[in-house]
Amino acid sequence: MGVPPMDGSRAGCPCHVPAGKGFCKILHIPAITAGHRRCTAARLRLACAALLLLLALPATAAVSLLDTYYSPRNRVRPVRPSTRFIILHTTEGGVKGAGEKLARYGEAHYMIDEAGRIYRIIDRKRVAYHCGRSMWNGRTALDSCSIGIEMVGHHNKDLTAAQYRALRELLAELKRIYKVPDNRILTHSMVAYGAPNQWQPRSHRGRKRCAMRMALNSVRARFGVMSKPASDPDVAAGRLVVADAELQRLLYSRDGSRAAIARYTATESNVIGPGRSAWDVARDAYNSADTIYIMPNGTRKTGKEIVNWRTIPSGTRVIIGEGDINPVEKVQSLAPGQAPSSIAGAEWNSARTVYLLPGRKWLRGDELTQKQAARLPPGTQILVGYRIDGPITARRPAFEICGLGWNEPDTYYLMPDGSLAAGSTVDPAKIPAGTMVLFKN
Ligand SMILES: [Zn+2]
Questions:
Q1: How is domain 72-267 classified at the CATH fold level?
Q2: Cα of 284 to ligand 1 centre, how many Å?
Q3: Stretch 300-305: mean pLDDT, rounded?
Q4: Residue 324 C-alpha to ligand 1 middle, in angstroms?
Protein backbone atom coordinates (compact mmCIF):
# COMPACT_ATOMS: atom_id res chain seq x y z
CA MET A 1 0.00 0.00 0.00
CA GLY A 2 1.05 3.58 -0.39
CA VAL A 3 2.16 4.33 3.14
CA PRO A 4 5.20 6.53 2.81
CA PRO A 5 8.42 5.32 4.44
CA MET A 6 9.28 6.81 7.81
CA ASP A 7 12.11 9.19 8.08
CA GLY A 8 14.47 7.44 10.48
CA SER A 9 16.47 10.53 11.39
CA ARG A 10 13.51 12.51 12.66
CA ALA A 11 10.96 9.95 13.73
CA GLY A 12 12.27 9.78 17.33
CA CYS A 13 9.69 7.10 17.87
CA PRO A 14 10.12 4.63 20.74
CA CYS A 15 8.07 1.94 19.04
CA HIS A 16 11.18 1.18 16.89
CA VAL A 17 9.34 0.40 13.73
CA PRO A 18 12.15 0.12 11.17
CA ALA A 19 12.23 2.73 8.45
CA GLY A 20 10.18 1.77 5.44
CA LYS A 21 8.53 -1.18 7.22
CA GLY A 22 5.35 0.58 8.30
CA PHE A 23 4.41 3.06 10.93
CA CYS A 24 3.32 3.34 14.48
CA LYS A 25 -0.34 4.15 14.61
CA ILE A 26 -0.09 5.39 18.17
CA LEU A 27 2.78 7.74 17.76
CA HIS A 28 2.33 9.33 14.43
CA ILE A 29 -0.71 11.23 15.49
CA PRO A 30 1.19 12.81 18.41
CA ALA A 31 4.19 13.09 16.08
CA ILE A 32 2.45 15.39 13.63
CA THR A 33 0.90 17.27 16.52
CA ALA A 34 4.08 17.71 18.51
CA GLY A 35 6.45 18.21 15.62
CA HIS A 36 8.50 15.02 15.98
CA ARG A 37 9.99 15.83 19.34
CA ARG A 38 11.46 12.87 21.14
CA CYS A 39 8.76 10.98 22.99
CA THR A 40 9.15 10.82 26.75
CA ALA A 41 7.83 8.06 28.98
CA ALA A 42 4.90 10.25 29.90
CA ARG A 43 4.15 10.76 26.26
CA LEU A 44 4.34 7.02 25.68
CA ARG A 45 1.74 6.49 28.39
CA LEU A 46 -0.43 9.12 26.74
CA ALA A 47 0.09 7.43 23.41
CA CYS A 48 -1.05 4.10 24.85
CA ALA A 49 -4.17 5.78 26.15
CA ALA A 50 -4.63 7.25 22.68
CA LEU A 51 -4.31 3.76 21.19
CA LEU A 52 -7.08 2.47 23.42
CA LEU A 53 -9.20 5.42 22.30
CA LEU A 54 -8.33 4.76 18.69
CA LEU A 55 -9.38 1.13 19.01
CA ALA A 56 -12.73 2.29 20.28
CA LEU A 57 -13.18 4.83 17.47
CA PRO A 58 -13.43 4.41 13.71
CA ALA A 59 -9.93 4.11 12.24
CA THR A 60 -8.11 7.42 11.84
CA ALA A 61 -5.48 7.51 9.15
CA ALA A 62 -1.94 8.01 10.42
CA VAL A 63 0.52 10.05 8.45
CA SER A 64 4.28 9.77 8.34
CA LEU A 65 6.36 12.69 7.25
CA LEU A 66 9.74 13.14 5.62
CA ASP A 67 12.05 16.03 6.44
CA THR A 68 14.15 15.98 3.24
CA TYR A 69 12.95 19.49 2.41
CA TYR A 70 12.47 20.79 5.95
CA SER A 71 12.88 24.55 5.65
CA PRO A 72 15.58 26.59 7.42
CA ARG A 73 12.91 29.34 7.57
CA ASN A 74 11.12 27.51 10.38
CA ARG A 75 13.34 29.27 12.86
CA VAL A 76 12.04 32.72 11.97
CA ARG A 77 8.40 32.01 11.14
CA PRO A 78 5.82 33.09 13.71
CA VAL A 79 3.21 30.75 15.09
CA ARG A 80 -0.10 31.10 13.24
CA PRO A 81 -2.87 32.37 15.52
CA SER A 82 -5.67 30.52 13.72
CA THR A 83 -6.28 27.95 10.99
CA ARG A 84 -9.45 28.56 9.02
CA PHE A 85 -8.43 27.23 5.60
CA ILE A 86 -6.40 24.53 3.91
CA ILE A 87 -5.12 25.67 0.52
CA LEU A 88 -4.12 23.18 -2.19
CA HIS A 89 -1.40 23.89 -4.76
CA THR A 90 0.34 22.25 -7.69
CA THR A 91 4.11 22.75 -7.92
CA GLU A 92 4.23 23.09 -11.74
CA GLY A 93 7.62 21.39 -11.51
CA GLY A 94 9.40 18.22 -10.40
CA VAL A 95 9.93 17.11 -6.82
CA LYS A 96 13.59 18.11 -6.46
CA GLY A 97 13.42 21.60 -7.96
CA ALA A 98 10.09 22.38 -6.30
CA GLY A 99 11.14 20.87 -2.96
CA GLU A 100 14.33 22.88 -2.82
CA LYS A 101 12.59 26.12 -3.72
CA LEU A 102 9.70 25.55 -1.30
CA ALA A 103 12.23 24.84 1.48
CA ARG A 104 14.48 27.78 0.63
CA TYR A 105 11.64 30.28 0.87
CA GLY A 106 9.38 28.39 3.30
CA GLU A 107 6.49 28.39 0.83
CA ALA A 108 4.37 25.43 2.00
CA HIS A 109 3.66 23.28 5.03
CA TYR A 110 3.62 20.00 3.12
CA MET A 111 4.55 18.65 -0.30
CA ILE A 112 3.31 15.31 -1.65
CA ASP A 113 5.29 13.69 -4.46
CA GLU A 114 4.02 11.35 -7.18
CA ALA A 115 4.84 8.28 -5.05
CA GLY A 116 2.65 9.65 -2.24
CA ARG A 117 5.54 10.60 0.03
CA ILE A 118 4.65 13.52 2.30
CA TYR A 119 7.39 16.04 3.04
CA ARG A 120 7.16 18.48 5.91
CA ILE A 121 8.50 21.90 4.87
CA ILE A 122 7.20 24.38 7.45
CA ASP A 123 5.88 23.23 10.84
CA ARG A 124 2.14 23.11 10.58
CA LYS A 125 1.79 25.54 13.51
CA ARG A 126 3.90 28.25 11.85
CA VAL A 127 3.29 30.60 8.92
CA ALA A 128 4.28 29.47 5.40
CA TYR A 129 4.22 31.93 2.48
CA HIS A 130 2.11 29.94 0.04
CA CYS A 131 -0.82 32.16 -0.96
CA GLY A 132 0.75 35.45 -1.99
CA ARG A 133 -1.89 38.08 -2.72
CA SER A 134 -5.05 36.30 -1.60
CA MET A 135 -8.63 36.93 -0.50
CA TRP A 136 -11.58 34.84 0.59
CA ASN A 137 -14.91 36.28 1.67
CA GLY A 138 -13.31 39.67 2.30
CA ARG A 139 -10.50 38.25 4.38
CA THR A 140 -7.05 38.93 2.89
CA ALA A 141 -3.48 37.68 3.41
CA LEU A 142 -4.60 34.09 3.97
CA ASP A 143 -1.11 32.87 4.88
CA SER A 144 -1.85 34.04 8.40
CA CYS A 145 -4.80 31.66 8.78
CA SER A 146 -4.16 28.70 6.50
CA ILE A 147 -2.15 25.54 5.87
CA GLY A 148 -0.67 25.08 2.38
CA ILE A 149 -0.22 21.69 0.71
CA GLU A 150 1.76 21.44 -2.55
CA MET A 151 1.06 18.51 -4.87
CA VAL A 152 3.99 17.72 -7.16
CA GLY A 153 2.46 18.06 -10.62
CA HIS A 154 0.67 20.51 -12.87
CA HIS A 155 -2.57 22.43 -12.64
CA ASN A 156 -4.00 20.70 -15.73
CA LYS A 157 -2.84 17.12 -15.00
CA ASP A 158 -4.34 14.43 -12.80
CA LEU A 159 -2.72 13.38 -9.51
CA THR A 160 -1.38 9.83 -9.11
CA ALA A 161 -3.34 7.22 -7.14
CA ALA A 162 -0.62 7.35 -4.44
CA GLN A 163 -1.00 11.14 -4.19
CA TYR A 164 -4.76 10.84 -3.75
CA ARG A 165 -4.25 8.31 -0.94
CA ALA A 166 -1.60 10.39 0.82
CA LEU A 167 -3.57 13.62 0.52
CA ARG A 168 -6.70 11.94 1.85
CA GLU A 169 -4.77 10.73 4.92
CA LEU A 170 -3.06 14.06 5.53
CA LEU A 171 -6.30 16.03 5.16
CA ALA A 172 -8.17 13.64 7.46
CA GLU A 173 -5.60 14.30 10.15
CA LEU A 174 -5.48 18.07 9.63
CA LYS A 175 -9.27 18.28 9.59
CA ARG A 176 -9.34 16.36 12.86
CA ILE A 177 -6.82 18.72 14.47
CA TYR A 178 -8.12 22.04 13.13
CA LYS A 179 -11.82 21.31 12.50
CA VAL A 180 -11.64 22.82 9.02
CA PRO A 181 -14.86 22.00 7.14
CA ASP A 182 -14.66 20.66 3.57
CA ASN A 183 -15.91 23.90 2.02
CA ARG A 184 -12.91 25.72 3.46
CA ILE A 185 -10.48 23.37 1.72
CA LEU A 186 -9.80 25.56 -1.30
CA THR A 187 -7.42 25.70 -4.25
CA HIS A 188 -4.86 28.46 -4.68
CA SER A 189 -6.64 29.42 -7.92
CA MET A 190 -9.82 30.05 -5.87
CA VAL A 191 -8.20 32.42 -3.37
CA ALA A 192 -5.41 34.15 -5.35
CA TYR A 193 -6.22 37.55 -6.75
CA GLY A 194 -4.25 40.11 -8.72
CA ALA A 195 -3.90 43.85 -8.36
CA PRO A 196 -4.45 45.83 -11.61
CA ASN A 197 -1.78 45.34 -14.26
CA GLN A 198 -1.43 46.37 -17.89
CA TRP A 199 -4.08 43.88 -19.01
CA GLN A 200 -6.47 43.98 -16.06
CA PRO A 201 -7.81 47.39 -15.01
CA ARG A 202 -9.23 46.09 -11.71
CA SER A 203 -8.33 43.76 -8.87
CA HIS A 204 -9.24 40.40 -10.28
CA ARG A 205 -9.63 36.69 -9.80
CA GLY A 206 -7.64 34.57 -12.26
CA ARG A 207 -4.10 35.44 -11.12
CA LYS A 208 -3.37 31.72 -10.76
CA ARG A 209 -4.54 28.42 -12.23
CA CYS A 210 -2.77 26.62 -9.39
CA ALA A 211 -4.42 23.28 -8.47
CA MET A 212 -7.52 24.18 -10.49
CA ARG A 213 -8.47 20.51 -11.12
CA MET A 214 -8.68 20.02 -7.37
CA ALA A 215 -11.76 22.22 -7.33
CA LEU A 216 -13.74 19.64 -9.32
CA ASN A 217 -16.21 17.60 -7.26
CA SER A 218 -15.14 14.32 -8.85
CA VAL A 219 -11.50 15.03 -8.00
CA ARG A 220 -12.27 16.25 -4.47
CA ALA A 221 -14.21 13.08 -3.71
CA ARG A 222 -11.03 11.09 -4.43
CA PHE A 223 -9.21 12.81 -1.56
CA GLY A 224 -12.17 12.66 0.77
CA VAL A 225 -13.49 16.23 0.47
CA MET A 226 -17.20 16.16 -0.21
CA SER A 227 -18.29 19.76 -0.53
CA LYS A 228 -17.07 23.08 -1.88
CA PRO A 229 -18.26 26.68 -2.08
CA ALA A 230 -21.04 27.18 -4.62
CA SER A 231 -19.61 30.46 -5.89
CA ASP A 232 -16.89 33.03 -5.40
CA PRO A 233 -17.89 35.27 -2.45
CA ASP A 234 -15.54 38.12 -3.38
CA VAL A 235 -16.78 38.31 -6.96
CA ALA A 236 -20.38 38.16 -5.72
CA ALA A 237 -19.71 41.06 -3.33
CA GLY A 238 -18.03 43.14 -6.07
CA ARG A 239 -14.65 43.16 -4.32
CA LEU A 240 -13.04 41.47 -7.34
CA VAL A 241 -13.84 41.05 -11.01
CA VAL A 242 -13.45 37.85 -13.03
CA ALA A 243 -10.43 37.94 -15.34
CA ASP A 244 -10.85 34.38 -16.62
CA ALA A 245 -14.49 33.38 -17.06
CA GLU A 246 -13.65 29.83 -18.20
CA LEU A 247 -11.47 29.21 -15.13
CA GLN A 248 -14.22 30.57 -12.91
CA ARG A 249 -16.74 28.17 -14.47
CA LEU A 250 -14.32 25.30 -13.95
CA LEU A 251 -13.73 26.15 -10.27
CA TYR A 252 -17.41 26.32 -9.43
CA SER A 253 -18.85 23.78 -11.87
CA ARG A 254 -21.37 21.63 -10.06
CA ASP A 255 -20.93 18.53 -12.14
CA GLY A 256 -17.18 18.24 -11.66
CA SER A 257 -17.07 16.89 -15.17
CA ARG A 258 -14.01 16.16 -17.24
CA ALA A 259 -15.54 18.35 -19.92
CA ALA A 260 -14.73 21.45 -17.87
CA ILE A 261 -11.05 20.51 -17.82
CA ALA A 262 -11.03 19.47 -21.47
CA ARG A 263 -12.59 22.78 -22.48
CA TYR A 264 -10.07 24.71 -20.45
CA THR A 265 -6.95 22.84 -21.52
CA ALA A 266 -8.03 22.98 -25.17
CA THR A 267 -7.82 26.75 -25.04
CA GLU A 268 -4.53 26.80 -23.07
CA SER A 269 -1.43 27.47 -25.11
CA ASN A 270 2.07 28.74 -24.44
CA VAL A 271 2.19 30.81 -27.62
CA ILE A 272 1.33 34.50 -27.69
CA GLY A 273 -1.04 35.45 -30.48
CA PRO A 274 -4.15 37.48 -31.29
CA GLY A 275 -6.29 37.52 -28.16
CA ARG A 276 -3.60 35.77 -26.09
CA SER A 277 -1.27 38.08 -24.16
CA ALA A 278 1.79 37.34 -22.03
CA TRP A 279 -0.55 37.54 -19.03
CA ASP A 280 -2.94 35.00 -20.56
CA VAL A 281 -0.06 32.56 -20.98
CA ALA A 282 2.05 33.12 -17.88
CA ARG A 283 -0.39 34.88 -15.53
CA ASP A 284 1.44 36.51 -12.64
CA ALA A 285 4.76 34.97 -13.72
CA TYR A 286 4.67 37.13 -16.89
CA ASN A 287 7.43 39.46 -15.70
CA SER A 288 9.48 36.90 -13.77
CA ALA A 289 13.18 36.33 -14.42
CA ASP A 290 12.27 32.60 -14.58
CA THR A 291 9.86 33.06 -17.50
CA ILE A 292 11.54 32.84 -20.94
CA TYR A 293 10.11 34.39 -24.10
CA ILE A 294 11.37 32.92 -27.38
CA MET A 295 10.49 35.27 -30.24
CA PRO A 296 9.78 33.97 -33.76
CA ASN A 297 13.24 35.24 -34.87
CA GLY A 298 14.91 33.15 -32.14
CA THR A 299 15.63 36.03 -29.71
CA ARG A 300 15.26 34.94 -26.08
CA LYS A 301 14.35 37.27 -23.25
CA THR A 302 13.32 36.74 -19.66
CA GLY A 303 10.17 38.34 -18.30
CA LYS A 304 12.34 40.71 -16.32
CA GLU A 305 14.04 42.05 -19.45
CA ILE A 306 10.88 42.95 -21.37
CA VAL A 307 9.77 46.55 -21.02
CA ASN A 308 6.99 47.06 -23.55
CA TRP A 309 4.56 44.18 -23.25
CA ARG A 310 2.46 45.30 -26.18
CA THR A 311 5.23 44.83 -28.72
CA ILE A 312 5.88 41.11 -28.17
CA PRO A 313 5.41 39.55 -31.61
CA SER A 314 2.68 37.06 -32.32
CA GLY A 315 4.11 33.53 -32.30
CA THR A 316 6.39 34.13 -29.28
CA ARG A 317 6.71 30.94 -27.24
CA VAL A 318 6.65 31.22 -23.43
CA ILE A 319 8.42 28.84 -21.07
CA ILE A 320 7.38 29.28 -17.47
CA GLY A 321 10.01 28.46 -14.84
CA GLU A 322 9.67 25.52 -12.49
CA GLY A 323 7.94 25.99 -9.22
CA ASP A 324 4.61 27.54 -8.29
CA ILE A 325 5.62 31.15 -8.08
CA ASN A 326 4.10 33.94 -5.99
CA PRO A 327 6.33 36.71 -7.32
CA VAL A 328 7.44 39.43 -4.96
CA GLU A 329 5.47 42.58 -5.78
CA LYS A 330 7.60 45.45 -6.91
CA VAL A 331 7.26 49.18 -6.43
CA GLN A 332 6.67 50.84 -9.81
CA SER A 333 7.80 54.36 -10.74
CA LEU A 334 6.08 56.94 -12.92
CA ALA A 335 8.06 57.83 -16.05
CA PRO A 336 7.88 61.42 -17.38
CA GLY A 337 4.47 61.99 -18.94
CA GLN A 338 3.11 58.63 -17.78
CA ALA A 339 -0.42 58.57 -16.36
CA PRO A 340 -0.94 56.75 -13.03
CA SER A 341 -3.75 54.74 -14.66
CA SER A 342 -1.22 53.05 -16.94
CA ILE A 343 0.12 51.39 -13.78
CA ALA A 344 -2.87 51.25 -11.42
CA GLY A 345 -5.61 50.85 -14.07
CA ALA A 346 -9.08 51.84 -12.95
CA GLU A 347 -7.89 51.75 -9.33
CA TRP A 348 -5.62 54.80 -9.71
CA ASN A 349 -7.99 56.66 -7.38
CA SER A 350 -8.57 53.82 -4.92
CA ALA A 351 -7.74 54.05 -1.22
CA ARG A 352 -5.64 50.93 -1.85
CA THR A 353 -3.32 52.63 -4.34
CA VAL A 354 -0.52 54.48 -2.59
CA TYR A 355 1.66 57.18 -4.15
CA LEU A 356 5.06 57.99 -2.66
CA LEU A 357 6.17 61.36 -3.92
CA PRO A 358 9.81 62.37 -4.15
CA GLY A 359 10.77 63.49 -0.65
CA ARG A 360 8.68 61.76 1.95
CA LYS A 361 5.18 62.90 1.09
CA TRP A 362 2.65 60.20 0.37
CA LEU A 363 -0.97 60.13 -0.81
CA ARG A 364 -3.67 57.52 -1.20
CA GLY A 365 -5.46 57.34 -4.55
CA ASP A 366 -8.74 58.48 -2.99
CA GLU A 367 -7.07 61.71 -1.89
CA LEU A 368 -6.11 62.65 -5.47
CA THR A 369 -8.17 64.61 -7.97
CA GLN A 370 -7.83 63.79 -11.67
CA LYS A 371 -5.97 67.07 -12.14
CA GLN A 372 -3.49 66.28 -9.37
CA ALA A 373 -3.00 62.77 -10.72
CA ALA A 374 -2.04 64.16 -14.11
CA ARG A 375 0.56 66.39 -12.44
CA LEU A 376 2.34 63.82 -10.27
CA PRO A 377 6.09 64.28 -10.63
CA PRO A 378 8.12 61.69 -12.54
CA GLY A 379 9.74 59.24 -10.13
CA THR A 380 6.59 59.02 -7.99
CA GLN A 381 6.48 55.45 -6.71
CA ILE A 382 3.20 53.54 -6.88
CA LEU A 383 2.02 50.52 -4.92
CA VAL A 384 -1.22 49.04 -6.17
CA GLY A 385 -3.41 47.03 -3.80
CA TYR A 386 -1.57 48.25 -0.72
CA ARG A 387 -2.52 49.93 2.51
CA ILE A 388 -0.35 52.51 4.24
CA ASP A 389 -0.55 52.78 8.00
CA GLY A 390 1.51 54.02 10.91
CA PRO A 391 3.50 55.68 12.17
CA ILE A 392 5.36 52.91 13.96
CA THR A 393 5.99 53.77 17.61
CA ALA A 394 7.29 51.85 20.60
CA ARG A 395 3.68 51.25 21.64
CA ARG A 396 2.48 50.41 18.14
CA PRO A 397 5.09 48.17 16.47
CA ALA A 398 4.89 46.97 12.86
CA PHE A 399 3.42 43.65 13.94
CA GLU A 400 0.44 45.47 15.50
CA ILE A 401 -0.14 47.39 12.28
CA CYS A 402 0.22 44.78 9.56
CA GLY A 403 0.27 41.48 11.42
CA LEU A 404 2.26 38.41 10.48
CA GLY A 405 3.31 39.81 7.10
CA TRP A 406 5.52 42.46 8.71
CA ASN A 407 8.74 40.86 7.41
CA GLU A 408 7.56 39.70 3.97
CA PRO A 409 9.78 40.80 1.08
CA ASP A 410 6.96 42.86 -0.42
CA THR A 411 5.92 44.65 2.74
CA TYR A 412 7.62 48.05 2.54
CA TYR A 413 8.76 50.53 5.19
CA LEU A 414 8.81 54.25 4.43
CA MET A 415 11.57 55.53 6.69
CA PRO A 416 11.68 59.05 8.18
CA ASP A 417 14.44 59.95 5.69
CA GLY A 418 12.15 59.05 2.76
CA SER A 419 13.91 55.80 1.85
CA LEU A 420 11.99 52.59 1.30
CA ALA A 421 13.04 49.24 2.82
CA ALA A 422 11.68 45.74 2.18
CA GLY A 423 10.18 43.90 5.16
CA SER A 424 12.63 41.03 4.71
CA THR A 425 15.55 43.41 5.35
CA VAL A 426 14.37 45.34 8.42
CA ASP A 427 15.36 44.64 11.99
CA PRO A 428 12.20 45.18 14.06
CA ALA A 429 14.26 46.44 16.99
CA LYS A 430 15.81 49.15 14.83
CA ILE A 431 12.85 50.58 12.90
CA PRO A 432 12.96 54.32 13.61
CA ALA A 433 9.90 55.87 15.24
CA GLY A 434 7.77 57.65 12.65
CA THR A 435 8.27 54.99 9.96
CA MET A 436 5.15 54.15 7.96
CA VAL A 437 4.41 50.63 6.74
CA LEU A 438 2.91 49.64 3.37
CA PHE A 439 1.38 46.18 3.13
CA LYS A 440 -0.74 44.10 0.78
CA ASN A 441 -4.31 44.00 1.89
ZN1 LIG B 1 -0.14 27.72 -5.65
A1: Lysozyme-like (3.40.80)
A2: 11
A3: 94
A4: 5
